[in-house]
Design goal:
Elements lengths: L1 H9 L4 H10 L4 H8 L4 H8 L2
Helix pairs in contact: 2-3, 3-4
Keywords: DNA recombination
InterPro entries: DNA_brk_join_enz (IPR011010), Integrase-like_cat_sf (IPR013762)
Protein name: Tyr recombinase domain-containing protein
Length: about 50
């Protein structure tokens, strides 16, 4: 998981659309929260519109 996290931090894609697209593609909200650096799942849900 650390490798994926490092790779995502290197991307220049805007964070909110990136996370929203992952969630809409079926990626688990816990994984998206970790990739986005959110400590709380509520934050991930809020910024992604879920």
């Amino acid at each position: 998981m650390q490798h994926a996290l490092t790779a995502c931090k290197a991307l220049t894609i805007p964070r909110t659309p990136f996370g929203t697209n992952l969630l809409h593609s079926g990626v688990d909200v816990v994984v998206v929260a970790q990739l986005m650096g959110h400590r709380r799942l509520d934050t991930t849900r809020l910024v992604s519109g879920l």
